[in-house]
Structure formats: structure tokens, C-alpha cells
Amino acid sequence: MKILFSNVFARHRKILMGLWAVLAVMAVNANEMLVIGTESDSIILNFVSKLSMSFSTYNFVDLLSFAGVYCLLIYIYKKPRNFNCSGAAVSAIFAFLYIWSFSYKAANDTSILFGNPFQIFLTVIMFIGFFSLFYILFEFLCVILEKPGNEENKETSGKYIFFAGVCTIMLGWLPWLIMNYPGSVAGDTIGQLGQFFSGEVNAHHPPLSTFLMGSSVKLGEILTDRNFGVFLYLLLQATLGSILFAYSIYKMHGFGIHKNYCILAIIFFAFTPLFGLYSQWLQKDMLYSEFVLMYVLLMSKILQENKIDIKEVIIFYIVGMFVCLLRNNGIYIIVPTCICLAIYLKREHRVRIIVVTIATIMLYLLITTGLYPALGIKNGSVREALSIPMQQTARYLRDHGDEVTEEERVALEGFCYEFEILPEIYEPTCADPVKDRINIEIDQPFVYFKAWIKMGIKHPGTYFDAFMNMNYGYLAPNEQNVEPDLSESYDQQLTDMGFCRVQGDIPIQIFSKLVFINVVFPFLRYLTMSGLYTWIVIISCALLIKYKRKAAICLLVPEIMTILVCLASPLCNGLRYELPVVFVTPLIIVWTWCQVRSTIDS
Length: 602
Prior knowledge:
two-stranded parallel sheet
């Protein structure tokens, strides 16, 4: 297959490149919409009419796109190259995810893809075009990776980069912290602070996170007021973040990356509005993501040295426990990661990781099932974990409510309040309205899941549509969602607890415009798309497999598990849920690059 592909391509090189570029440009300029033609009995007239409205472009964008793609092809195939199986697999996955995700974003179903024979024809053309474009980009990346590298200038001190990074990142974040004093407060955090000061804490939100934020506010109240407590927590969180980001850049320099790329990474973390925005937002996600970054940094050292000493075991265990306790789904990141490390490491060190894994599970269970009840901390709700099943049930009731059997009706009545109104309150991209109807004191949960399976067997397409609607934002870079609030006033609940905004309108408006620039500015806007970071992880895995560095994929396991957790979350495109992947992205890009280069150079 590879030889045949190479021979055919070599004989008709320029013609095939031209057609290839045309397909890619057609896909980019295709309209992701249900195309309507003329009302005529003529099949040909209808087809031509629909075709005329299927593509759009602005000025010379199509010509520039064609020229760019064609030049890329000329550059890539200066020398014959074999068919890239990894590139083909990634391109097919990306083409599928991109087209499917846009269909669900626009229509909440696949009508844009398969609504009629013409839409199917257009979908096939778009799939081929996007497959071609993504394959070209993947091949270009491989060509860049395979170029002979220049030796890094080792005169630059890694410590200099670290200290410069800490200072620069803090300098970039301080305006956000000071000008938005005391800081923005997330809706979930309002509930956590309410729990802390009322003494009625539950495990719906991580109790450790509740305690840390509440204690900081309490300390601020002792020193001056509660506002200062919010600022104090955000300042300490930002300081830790700047140290960890700078250390990750220091590690990148240690991998052999040129100092200029390290400087770019510092600028990225310091002055991208996204990071400044999160630094002034009081919520549990940033501190949790920082500890995930710390955990991945420890992993990189273990994987590099293929060993772990006793001191590292203790630190690795402690950081892992913080990850588990700072977010309720953190345990799903740590355990799979430890299992992968145990498989990769040599026997003696494998035993140490196994001990860490067992100790982590035991202590986690001891805390959540023993310590929490002893401290009067009530169990959290199961609602968050049931977002997808409940969305599927609500969509089923909306589309096939007349097919619900008496047995299924009884099961639904015992599982959620007023299940009859689920079709009315169902929102395809947010599970909050539906999951809030779940009965948290379920006597027989298996009765519901039995009914859920039966309904899914009858209409699997409905379940798939519900799942895609809840996840298209994580599966492709197609939509921004920056959640932190920069409002000019606090919620009434916060005001009642003694918090207040002290800054005027102008600072809020300035920083709001900076966030808007991050969302709409060319190239920069993609940084606010959760799907971009999912794709980076997929590309990294594909490159490590292609260049036979499968063991290096261990470093990507925390990111992979985070993405899988996102797919079960109650929001279709929550960037804060994927924040651990965002924080680790520069490190995994450099890690992948260096691992591939080590294979090529050896």
C-alpha cells in the first residue's frame, strides 16, 4: 500500500497536489448548514441550486488558501514520502469530530449531515476535504520534526529562565489581581463559602477546597475584612501558579528546547488574557489544575530517569493526594496514571508505584468514608456523575415520550422529581436543569438504569445525539467558553456574607475588553476553545506512536483522563473543566517534540 501510494503520487505529482489543495479549500469554505434549493420538479435544477449555496468565501481567501496548501504540499513532497498511517488515522478522527461537532452546534442533531441526499453528498465532500487538509498539516508537522536539529546553546542558565519566568508571569497577572480587587467569585464558590461559615459542609464540592478558601477569608477577616481574605487566597494561588508555570518552562529548557521558545512560553503564560482572568477568579478549578501540573512535572522526571527514589515516592504520593482531594474526580486521574507508570517502570520501582497506588486508594477511602462522616460532612450528590444518562433520558422523553412503558415510567418516578417536565426543561448543551431533578435519596437506582438501558436499545441514535450535544465543545475546536465573571457587583448572597466590590467601572470594562479580544482575535481565540487542547493531546499520542515512543504516552495519561471526565461533565464546552490540560499543554508539546527527536536522532 505504501509503495503503491508513493509510485502513483510520484508519476502525477503536480496534478494530484492541485486536486488535493482544491479539496482542502472546498472543505474550509463549505457552509455548515442545511442547504435549501429551488422549489422545482427538476432534480438537476435543485442539485445545481443547492450546490451554488453550499460554499462561501470572503474576497481572496479561497485563492490564498489554495496557494498556501499547494505550497505546503510542494514543501512536504520535495522528496518521496511513504503513506503516513498515523497521519491518516488522526486526520480521519479530526475530520469526523470537526464535521459532527459543527452539526450538533448548529442544529443539535445530524440533520445538516444526513438530512437529505444532497446533504449526504456535501458531507462526503467535506469529510474528504477536511481529511486531506488535516493529513497535509500532520505530514508538514512530521517533516518539521524530521529536519536535522541545531544544537541548543547550553550557555543559558536554566535557573535564570526559572526566576525570569516567575517574575514575568506574576508581573503579567498582578494587574488582574489588583485592578479587580478583591476578585471575581464563582457561583459554586458562593455555596462553598456559605457552607464554611454555616458549618454545614457537604462533599458535593471538595471539602479541602472549601476549607482552604474559607480559612483564607477568615484570616482576612481577622486582619482587615473578608474582601482581603479573597485577595489573599488569589494572591497565594497566583504565586503558586507562576512558580509552577516557570518551573515547567525550566523543565522544557532541560529537555533541550532553545531559550527563545522558553521566552515565548513565559510570554504565553504571563500575558495571555485567559490566564490573568483565571488568576483573579475565586474557584476550585485553578488550584486543582496547578496540582495536576505539579503531578505531571514529577512524572516527567520519573519517566526521564526510569526510576523513582524514596524521597520522590513521598512527594509523588502527597501531591497525588492533593489532586484527589481538591476535586471529586481527581481520583480518576491519579489511579490510571499510577497503573500506567507501574507498567512502564522496572521491577523495583514498579513495586514502589504499586504501593503508592494502593496507599492513595486506601487513604482516599478512609478520608471520604471515615473522616468526612466523623466531621459531620455529608455525602455529595450523585447528580454530577449522572449528567449524560439524565440528558439521554430527557431527550428520549422529548422525542419518544409516547413509547415509555409502565415499567419505565415507574422507574423514572422513583429516580427524579416530576419527570414529566423533563422534555420541557431539557437543554441540549447543559445538564443543570435536568440533573437538578434527580432524587438524591434513591432507593433502587438499578431499576432506573435497567429502564435507561432498555430505552437506549430502542433508540440508540437519540442517546448518541444527547451525548454529542453535551460534548461537541470538547471534541473539536469550534466554540469559546470563558467562564470567569468580571461583573461590577457581587451576588446578593455574597453581599449578605460581607463581601463587596470596591473597584469602579473602568477597570472592569478594560479587562472585559481584553477577555473579548482573547475570544475573537485571530489565532488567539483558539486558546479559549476546549477542543483545541483535546486535539493537541490526540496529535501528541499519534506522533509518539508513529515514532515508536509509546512509553512516553504515560505523561499524557492525566490529560487523557481529564478529557474523559470532561465528557461526563454537565456542560458541553466548559473550559474550566479542561483547565488541567490547558496548563500542561506547552509541556506536553515540548515533551512530544523531544521524544520524537530522540528517536529520529538515534
